């Protein structure tokens, strides 16, 4: 899905460009789908956790805990059916399957990358993480270290793509802004103009 | 009408050489004439990605596997996805391939025809017909050229060779020679003063060539001791490097000629002139040569040229600038002796060479003639005008020469290449076509970003017109 640009300008000397390929949830159906997705994720997580606990009930969850009574739980009708399913598979299979499902539950369905420009201070690039559990990776470059901001082309896979790059003083490699999404030229040109105006143009 | 042209070749800067500078000079002159030109070549060490040269000449250094003497692996189809991407984003209308040993160029021409783009091929070299490597190359050339729109050769000998190798229609082959930038190759002294040579003055012979077998280095190794033995006041300067350099050095050591022969190693192209002006005679012992740009450069520097009568060399320079030899040891020694004698008797006006060469060769002229070829294949001038009109002949000029892009017509042309080869080539073309259809679905055209063109510099005429127009504007309201 091609990325779209979101421009925020909280003050005249600050501007933030965000490129994201997340869907916008404008229509009612899309909103409903979005909440349904959250519900499904929670449900899947609960199921997997329950299955895992059932699998390892003999080693870890045998005695009654302080607030959950495991023994009564395993003897109930739902508990016994979960136990039957868990016992049908060997433990490596269960561990592997639950890892995959947990990863799927916490995986983000979109990528969001942003460039924050603050005059007199510097710029910060950030790329959203793949899962909800980890933080976004960011990089801050102070104004004194910015040599230039350029748009250039490079080979990527079977294509030639445009990219926006910050040339940092004293570093042999440039810092690529929006490295994962690599938005199209029009977006890049808008970001390039906006960030240069914010960084260097004293009038605005 | 301005075109968007892609020059494709394995050979480009930073590697030095004749083809490389040909592509560069032709491209810059075409840009001056208002066209948009990009160059597609493979990645060299330390030079990858997209680069810009002077005048907004854009170079794509495509990362690719190099096998032998900077030639890429012939993989037929693997270049197609990236080539298609470049062609679409640059809106290319004409693909111009260079050099018959470059697999990059062959593949590009094949894919360009599949994509429905006009193609031109420039042949820079001569080939034999006998040995295995030549037979293979010739078959490959026949494959590619059976569907190309037009071929350019650098000399008439080269044209003859190419027409025979690829069984082409001779009218589809044009001859456009190389040229030199005469300003970069001017003689050291002011040109009006004739050089007077005494009988004991030192005469320096310059040799600048890559030291490979086909450049006649063996001939040179055999001839140098004999020339030096019979002419004591002669010195040699040899520039260039290659596998034969070691043989040359052994010869110097065997005959103790180190004080008379100076070996410079490889020189950069911009230093060639400085080496040339140190000498009086340029010796070119090449065994095969399609054109020999270096001869023009030498003559432009005011050197008398001794060369072998092979390939396209006899076409390059007029009689009074050269002494020809057969490509054998005895004749080369004899011809060099003749040249030395001619210089000693002050019969040769080498001081006039520069201006004469300047009149004969210019890149602007080459670009002009190449542009006519582009016009011809794009249909901007009629086939009758382009291929010539022959009244009374029973064929039409443009009947078979304007090549349609229909797959069936292309297959017909390839099928005629040979009993087995024809079928193999047809298979390749069909696969190429299917690959194209697949790529159109997988990487749709709409998703490819168009590249911006370099802002075009106005030429002199347009500049003047604009200046006049703005002056009129300024005068208008006041009057």
Question: Could you give a short description of this structure?
Answer:
With 204 residues, chain A is α+β, with helices and mostly antiparallel strands. Chain A has helices at residues 28-55, 70-75, 77-88, 91-106, 185-200, and strands spanning 4-11, 14-20, 112-118, 122-127, 137-142, 146-156, 159-168, 175-177. Chain B has helices spanning 18-32, 80-89, 103-114, 132-145, 156-166, 217-230, 245-255, 272-276, 293-300, 313-316, 329-344, 353-360, 363-378, 383-387, 407-415, 419-442, 460-478, and strands at residues 4-8, 36-42, 49-53, 57-62, 66-68, 71-72, 94-98, 118-123, 150-153, 173-175, 203-208, 234-239, 261-265, 281-284, 304-308, 322-325.
How would you characterize this protein structure?
Chain A: One of its GO terms (cellular component) is glycosylphosphatidylinositol-N-acetylglucosaminyltransferase (GPI-GnT) complex. Chain A: Pathway: Glycolipid biosynthesis; glycosylphosphatidylinositol-anchor biosynthesis. Chain A: It comes from Aspergillus heteromorphus CBS 117.55. Chain A: This is Phosphatidylinositol N-acetylglucosaminyltransferase. Chain A: Keywords: Glycosyltransferase, Membrane, Transferase, Transmembrane, Transmembrane helix. The complex is a heterodimer of chains A (204) and B (479). The model of chain A has no long low-confidence stretch (mean pLDDT 85). The radius of gyration of chain A is 25 Å and the shape is elongated. Chain A folds into two domains: 4-22 and 109-200, Roll (PH-domain like), CATH 2.30.29; 28-106, no CATH class. In chain A, the strands form two sheets. A five-stranded antiparallel sheet of chain A has the order 1-2-3-4-5, covered by helices on one side. Chain A starts with a strand and ends with a helix. In chain A, helix 1 (28-55) packs across helix 3. Chain A is built from five helices and eight strands. Chain A has helices spanning 28-55, 70-75, 77-88, 91-106, 185-200, and strands spanning 4-11, 14-20, 112-118, 122-127, 137-142, 146-156, 159-168, 175-177. Chain B folds into two domains: 4-179 and 364-447, Glycogen Phosphorylase B (Rossmann fold), CATH 3.40.50.2000; 182-360, Glycogen Phosphorylase B (Rossmann fold). Chain B is 42% helix and 16% strand. Chain B has an eight-stranded mixed sheet, sandwiched between helices. A six-stranded parallel sheet of chain B has the order 13-12-11-14-15-16, sandwiched between helices. In chain B, helix 10 (313-316) links the parallel strand 15 (304-308) and strand 16. In chain B, helix 6 crosses helix 11 (329-344). The longest helix of chain B is centred in the C-terminal third of the chain and has 24 residues, at 419-442. Chain B is globular and about 75 Å long. The two termini of chain B are 38 Å apart. The interface between A and B is medium-sized, with 12 and 18 residues.
